[in-house]
Specification:
Layout (H helix, E strand, L loop, with lengths): L1 E12 L2 E4 L3 E6 L19 E4 L6 H9 L11 H5 L17 H14 L3 H15 L6 H33 L3 E2 L4 E2 L5 E3 L5 E4 L4 E2 L4 E4 L8 E4 L4 E2 L4 E4 L2 E4 L4 E2 L4 E3 L8 H5 L12 E3 L4 E2 L4 E2 L4 E2 L4 E2 L4 E2 L7 E4 L4 E5 L3
Parallel strand pairs: 5-8, 6-9, 7-10, 8-11, 9-12, 10-13, 11-14, 12-15, 13-16, 14-17, 15-18, 16-19, 17-20, 18-21, 19-22, 21-23
Antiparallel strand pairs: 1-2, 1-3, 1-4, 23-24
Helix pairs in contact: 3-4
Length: 338
C-alpha cells in the first residue's frame, strides 16, 4: 500500500519568502514506521507544511516533520523487506526503530509546546471545553430540573425499598422495626456463620463494609443498638464481637476492627499465619456516643457513654464516659457534663 504525502518547505532569501520545489515522499507500510529525534536533528516543524490525503491528520504530520523510516510492506520481496526507505529529512537513512510510546510522548509534547498554528488551534480547542457555557433561562431550565429530581427520587426510592433494604435485612440474624439503608448495596462477607443483630430505628447509610472473620470464632457477632445511625463508607471487621450501643452517631468512613488481621511477629507474618487469639479483643461502644468521620478504633477498645471521638482520631486505648478525645493516638481534650 502506498501513501503519498506532499510536503512544501519555505526558506527566506534576502528578506523575501520563496517557495521551493514540491517533494513527493513515498512510504510503504506506514504501520511499521518508527521515528527518532536523532534522525531529524535540526528539522524545524514550523518550516514544514503537509498536504494530507484521506484526513490522515496530525500523526502523519508528525511523521513528515520527524522524517520517515521503517520497513517495507510485509510479504514483499526479500530485498525490499530488508531495505529501509530513505527520507528527505533523514538523508543518512538511519535505523529509526523506536517504541511507539516514545513517539506518542513526543507528539504530545510538540502539541503542547509548539508555536505552529495547528498546535495553537488544538490547545485553544482543548481549553474551550472548560470555558464553554450556555445560558440557562430559569423558565426553561427549572421544569427540566424539577422533572429530573423527581424521577431520580422515584428511582432511588424504589431501589432502596425493593432491593437494598431487603438485601441488608436478609443478612441480619435479627432486626427490629424501621431498619433502613441508603440506595446502595452494602458489602457483606462471611455473614453465614457470622451474625448481625440490629435494633429498632437503625439506619445504615451509603455503602458500608461488613467482614466476619470466622477463623477466630464460631459466630462472630456485630450488634447495633436501637436508634443508631451509621454513615457512608464505614467498615467493620468482626473476629469475635463488636457492640455498638443505642442512640449512637457514627459518621462516614469510620473503621472498627477487633482483630489485627496479621500477627505482629515478623516470622509468623512471613509464614502467612493468622493473628494470635489473645490479639483478637472485642470492641464495645456505649450509648449516645458520637464518633466523627475517619476515626479508627483498634481491638479491645471500650468507649464509655456520651463520649465524643473527634474527626480523624486513632483510638488505641479505652475511653471513659463523658469525655472528648482527639488525635493520633487519641487523648482526652475535654470533659462533658453527665
Amino acid at each position: 500500500m502506498v501513501w503519498e504525502v506532499c510536503a512544501r518547505t519555505w526558506s527566506r532569501t534576502d528578506g523575501r519568502e520563496t517557495r521551493s520545489t514540491v517533494r513527493r515522499i513515498r512510504a510503504l507500510n506506514p504501520g511499521g514506521m518508527r521515528c527518532t529525534r536523532d534522525a531529524i536533528a535540526g528539522a524545524d516543524l514550523r518550516r514544514v507544511r503537509a498536504l494530507l490525503k484521506d484526513d490522515i491528520g496530525l500523526h502523519l504530520l508528525q511523521y513528515i516533520a520527524e522524517g520517515f523510516g521503517g520497513s517495507a510492506a510485509a510479504g514483499g520481496a526479500g530485498e525490499r523487506a530488508e531495505k529501509r526507505i530513505p527520507s528527505p529529512l533523514n538523508p543518512k537513512n538511519e535505523d529509526c526503530s523506536q517504541d511507539n510510546g516514545r513517539f506518542m510522548s513526543s507528539w504530545h509534547r510538540r502539541l503542547a509546546l509548539s508555536d505552529h498554528w495547528f498546535a495553537r488551534l488544538a490547545r485553544s480547542a482543548y481549553r474551550l471545553q472548560y470555558t464553554f457555557s450556555i445560558p440557562a433561562p430559569r423558565l426553561v431550565v427549572k421544569p427540566f430540573v424539577f422533572l429530573y429530581v423527581t424521577l431520580r427520587g422515584i428511582y432511588f426510592f424504589l431501589k432502596r425499598v425493593l432491593i437494598c433494604e431487603p438485601f441488608f435485612k436478609a443478612h441480619c440474624a435479627e432486626y427490629g422495626r424501621n431498619v433502613h439503608t441508603g440506595s446502595h448495596l452494602h458489602w457483606i462477607v462471611g455473614v453465614g456463620p457470622g451474625k448481625m443483630v440490629v435494633g429498632d430505628n437503625v439506619t445504615v447509610d451509603g455503602t458500608c463494609n461488613f467482614l466476619f472473620a470466622i477463623r477466630y470464632s464460631d459466630t462472630p457477632t456485630l450488634r447495633i443498638g436501637s436508634n443508631t445511625c451509621v454513615g457512608h463508607d464505614c467498615a467493620f471487621v468482626v473476629g469475635r464481637e463488636v457492640t455498638i450501643g443505642r442512640h449512637c452517631r457514627i459518621a462516614a468512613n469510620v473503621q472498627m476492627f477487633d482483630t489485627p488481621g496479621h500477627p505482629l511477629d515478623p516470622a509468623a507474618r512471613f509464614k502467612g499465619l493468622p493473628a494470635r487469639d489473645e490479639d483478637v479483643r472485642p470492641i464495645i461502644i456505649g450509648d449516645n456516643v458520637w464518633i466523627g468521620s475517619s476515626v479508627i478504633i483498634f481491638p479491645g477498645v471500650t468507649i464509655g457513654d456520651n463520649s465524643v471521638i473527634s474527626i480523624g482520631s486513632v483510638v488505641v486505648a479505652s475511653v471513659p464516659a463523658n469525655v472528648i478525645v482527639a488525635g493520633n493516638p487519641a487523648r482526652q481534650i475535654g470533659k462533658l457534663s453527665s
